[in-house]
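Work Package 3 committed the consortium to producing structural models of liganded targets before the mid-term review. Because experimental data for this complex are still outstanding, the team generated a predictive model from sequence and the ligand definition alone, so that downstream docking and mutagenesis planning could proceed in parallel. The input record is reproduced below exactly as it was submitted to the modelling pipeline, together with the SMILES string for S-adenosylmethionine.
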Amino acid sequence: MTVVAVGPGDPRMLTLRGRQALESADLVTGFKTVLDVVAEWCGNAEMKPMSYRDQEDVLEYTAAQAADGKKCVVCCWGDLNVSAAELLARVYRRAENVELIPGISSIQMACARSGIAMEESLFITLHRRDGSESALSELEHYLGEGKRNIILLPRPFDLMPAQIAADLVTAGISGDRPVTVYQRLTLEGEQAWNGTLAECAAITEEFSDLSIMVFPRPVGGNH
Ligand SMILES: C[S@@+](CC[C@H](N)C(=O)[O-])C[C@H]1O[C@@H](n2cnc3c(N)ncnc32)[C@H](O)[C@@H]1O
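The resulting structure, written out as tokens with the ligand in place, is given here.
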């Protein structure tokens, strides 16, 4: 089995190696939104979309096909090393030999758009099974420390940018702190919102589930 990370949404962001793996695949699986990104590269492969409800069954079927000698590809969004551990674990439970083909993450796109360097940044995700409390307290801690830019993946749909900003201000982070929210990076309708934490907390319009927040390191912050 091969896991191909498809990039942040625009099909042109798929790597050449990922495209080769898809072109020679017998079976390609992944969540429907992910398969839509790569459909044009999948040649005659059997396309097997999965949902949260049937993912175990679909992966079971995929593993059986792989054991039969078929070339099977599981697709994941963005990069496979970024907030995708659960899907990878499900694949590893069923296959010993797994090739991983990385992709471009939404966090790399956010860095590219905002011009910040990864080595001066910290990445935190609220997409966590074990609850988001520890991630939120880490976020407060590192924002307070001010040494690094922070790139944050909100949690659709209950911990989105306005709520996160409001919680941070309540926790004592200055409402004047700048923040950028990127929505739908590389996709149609891509947007960037810039403002302060207090302004973000006051936003009542809904954010896309494809949203990412960037908190730049304060000017003159520690290096
Ligand atoms: C479960 S995580 C998977 C991240 C993915 N593996 C990656 O590398 O981008 C999904 C979250 O990533 C962020 N995301 C993914 N693609 C995005 C995009 N095109 N624009 C903005 N945020 C995106 C959103 O916060 C979304 O809820």
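Reviewers should note the following from the model. The longest helix spans residues 55-67. These observations will guide the Year 2 experiments.
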